[in-house]
Specification:
Blueprint (H helix, E strand, L loop, with lengths): L10 E5 L4 H12 L3 E6 L2 H13 L4 E5 L5 H15 L4 E4 L21 H29 L2 E6 L12 H25 L3 E8 L8 H4 L8 H8 L13 H8 L10 E4 L10
Parallel strand pairs: 1-2, 1-4, 2-3, 4-5, 5-6, 6-7
The structure holds nicotinamide-adenine-dinucleotide.
Length: about 270
């Protein structure tokens, strides 16, 4: 049975691997024996991450790359195939909100800056689509591979203040379904595309809106917890098992799903 969940020996590309969520997934992949290609736009994050991964005894390489630059992604794909001969897994983790794209409490949608709307939708939507096209092409040629995208609770129902992020994550959910269909129908049943939809985890990008400087909960985070049946935030490591499962043989008939990992947030009406 354990064999079915194994990702040992697989070549996994993880974008945004210098960040909180990508780092956690990269570490758990290394601990499970996968070979990791860590991609991030910030060199300083990446160098620290690769050291951490190789210190764990794993095979990892770090490549500075921008998920919005298709040419450089193609070079990365060529490099990986030259080195390891294949690409089995792509985790599209790079993304997140852009500070200017969050409306302040006293703003309305008409105060939204279009430049920030464009930044946040580009990063979260095309930052998933472009790597999926480049690395997914390799998987299509191999007739096997697994892509995992990151959607959000913001794609299930409206969350105040974050219009651009929500629109982009909704696009990620839809693209997940669309590409899943396309790959299965045209490239066979071994190329799968799924997404996770994390609930609320305290990360660098959302700490300020959820936790006050004195460590107490903000009004916003009290609302989040009131709608979370488990009554707590997630621990970032609680995403790792689901991602591994989606990338393993155990999920061989699962494609096009958006799996909430949210302590029940998306299934609870709040009443
Ligand atoms: N933290 C949460 O609670 C939460 C909840 C739902 C979804 N998410 C999603 O999970 C993903 C990761 O979130 P996180 O909390 O780890 O954020 P993070 O900011 O810690 O990590 C994101 C990483 O992506 C990198 N990055 C940004 N732009 C890039 C680009 N153009 N090319 C390559 N790399 C780039 C950053 O340098 C950073 O290291 C995001 O898609 C985010 O929207 C997070």
């Amino acid at each position: 049975m354990n064999e079915m969940f194994s990702i040992a020996g697989k070549v996994a590309v993880i974008t945004g691997a210098g960040g909180v969520l990508g780092g956690s997934i990269a570490k758990s992949f290394i601990q499970q024996g996968a070979r990791v290609v860590a991609i991030d736009i910030r060199r300083e994050n990446l160098d620290a991450r690769v050291k951490e991964l190789t210190d764990l005894g794993g095979e990892a390489i770090g490549i500075v790359g921008n998920v919005l630059d298709r040419e450089s992604l193609q070079q990365v794909a060529d490099e990986i195939v030259a080195r390891w001969g294949r690409i089995d897994i792509l985790c599209n983790i790079a993304g997140g909100n852009v500070p200017g794209a969050t409306l302040a409490e006293d703003q309305t949608i008409f105060d939204m800056k279009i430049a920030d709307w464009e930044k946040v939708t580009q990063l979260n939507m095309n930052g998933t689509v472009y790597p999926s096209l480049v690395f997914g092409r390799v998987m299509a040629d191999q007739r096997s591979g697994s892509i995992v995208n990151v959607s959000s609770m913001a794609a299930f129902s409206a969350i105040t203040r974050v219009a651009g992020y929500s629109a982009a994550k909704t696009a990620v959910s839809n693209f997940t379904q669309w590409m899943a269909m396309e790959m299965a129908m045209k490239f066979g049943d071994k190329v799968r595309v799924n997404a996770i939809a994390p609930g609320f985890f305290i990360g660098d990008q959302n700490r300020a809106v959820l936790i006050n400087p004195d460590g107490s909960l903000t009004e916003r985070s009290k609302k989040v917890l009131a709608k979370t049946p488990m009554g707590r935030f997630g621990d970032i490591t609680e995403l790792n098992g689901a991602v591994q499962f989606l990338c393993s043989e155990a999920a061989s008939f699962i494609t096009g799903v958006v799996l909430p990992i949210d302590g029940g947030f998306s299934s609870f009406s709040g009443v």
